[in-house]
Amino acid sequence: MAVVVASAPGKVLMTGGYLILERPNAGLVLSTNARFYAFVKPLRHEIKRDSWAWAWTDVRLTSPQLSREALYKLALKNLTIQAVSSSDTRNPFVEYAVQYAVAAAYATFDHDKKELLLKLLLQGLDITILGCNDFYSYRNEIERRGLPLTPESLATLPPFSSITFNTGDADGGNCKPEVAKTGLGSSAAMTTAVVAALLHYLDVVKLSPSKDHRERRDIADLDMVHKIAQTAHCIAQGKVGSGFDVSSAVYGSQRYVRFSPEVISSTQVADKAVPLPDVITEILKGTWDHNTTEFSLPPLMTLLLGEPGTGGSSTPSMVGAVKKWQKSDPQKSLDTWKRLSEANSALEMQLNLLSILAEEQWNAYKSVIDCCSMLRSDKWIEQASDPNKEAVIKALLGAKDAMLGIRNHMRLMGEAAGVPIEPESQTQLLDATMNLEGVLLAGVPGAGGYDAVFAVTLGDSSSNVTKIWSSLNVLALLVKEDPCGVCLESADPRTNEITSAVSSIHIE
Prior knowledge:
By secondary structure, this protein is of the alpha+beta class. Helix content is 43%, strand content 17%. Strands 1, 2, 3, 4, 5, 6, 7, 8 and 13 form a nine-stranded mixed beta sheet that branches.
C-alpha cells in the first residue's frame, strides 16, 4: 500500500483564554498555515509466513527534525503498546494515537474487514512526523547567525529544520534537544495528523484532499478523527482539557464551545479489564456536546504572531493558579469572568458584523480598510464620508474597544490570581502595537504569559508592524491564518517545499 500523508494545522486562540475551559463559554480560535504532517506506510511489503502466529506487530516512529527513531511492539489482541527502544525517544501522543486509531478500526469493522485489518497490521506500521518550522522557536538560531529579527530571516531556514540546534550546548555533541516552541499547539496538531493518517490508512475514514473547507463532504469522517484525536490527546496529557486546539486542528478556524469532560473518562480509558475497542465504542457513541461554528477573520485583515523572546510560561501552572483564585474568591472571580465573557462576545459580534458589511457593501468596506490601514485609529472616524463607510468604521472601533476590554479583564484576573497573564513587558508592547497605523487588535493569545503576542492588521499595514516589532526585539513569525483543518496530502511536503523554493527564485 502507498504511503498516506495527512496534515493538521496549528492554532491561535484569539479570545476565550481560561473561560473556554468551562461550558458554555465560547472562544474564537484561528487555524494557521503552520501544519504538522504524518506519514503512514507498511514496515514490510510482504507478510512473513509465520506471522499468523504472532501476538505482536512492529511500529516504528521517526522524527527527522529531532533525529529520533522509536521502536514499539503493538499487541494485536489487547492493543497495548510497548517501547523497544530507549525511553527518551518515546512520544506518548503518538503512542495513544496508534492505540486508539487501531482500536477504532476494530470497534467499527465487521468480520471480513477485521481479517484485512489484521493483514495490514502484520506488515507493521512505519510512521514519520514532521512539523513546520513555525511550531518551534528559531530565534536563538537567527541571533546566532547574526541575522535581523525579521520574518525574512526565518524564511532563509530550510523547511522542517532540525530542532537540535536550539540547545545552549556549544559542542553540539550528543545533547538532547531543548525544544523551544511558539505556542501554536504542536502536540494537538501532531496527534490529529497521526490519527487522521492512521484512520485513513486503515480504511476507517476516507479523508478529503480538499484544502477548501467549504467543499468538504467528509464531515462524518472528520467527526471520527476528532473524537479519537481528542481522546488520545487528553489521555497523553493526563487531563481532559478544553479541546479547542484539537478541534481547530480537525475542523479549522471556528467559534468553539467545549465538550463535557465526562465523555472522555480517563478512569474508563485506563481500566485494563475492559478491551480497548469496547472503550472506544463507548467514546464514539458518547454525547459529544461541543459546539463549533465557522469563523474566520473578515476580508483584508491579516493575523500576525510575534515572539518577544522573554522566556516561556507554563500554561498548566497558570491555569491552576486561576482555578485556585476562583475557589478562594468566588464572587470577585465570577464578576471578572462575566465582564470578560461580555467583552469576548462584543469582539465576536463586531468581527461578524464586519464580515457581513464586507459582503453587502464591498466598495465602502474596501475603501475604509485601505484608508484606515495607513492611519492610527484615532484618525479613522474622519474617513466616515458616507453612512456605509461610517458603519464599517464604527464596527472597527467597536472591535478595538472590545479588545481593550478583554485585555483589561485578563490583566485584572492575572493580578488577582498572582500570575503574569499580561505581564508589564507585554502590556507596553501591546499598547505600542495598538497605536500603530492600521492595527485593529493586539493581545496575548490563549492563556497569556511571555510566549507570544498577536496582532490583527488592516490592508497592507502588517509589513510596517513587523519592522516596528523587530526594533522592539520582537520576531514576527511567518504564520498566517488559514481556515483549513485536517486534510489528506497528495505529496511529500518536503519535495513540495523544494519545488516551490526553486520556482520562487528569479533568474535575472
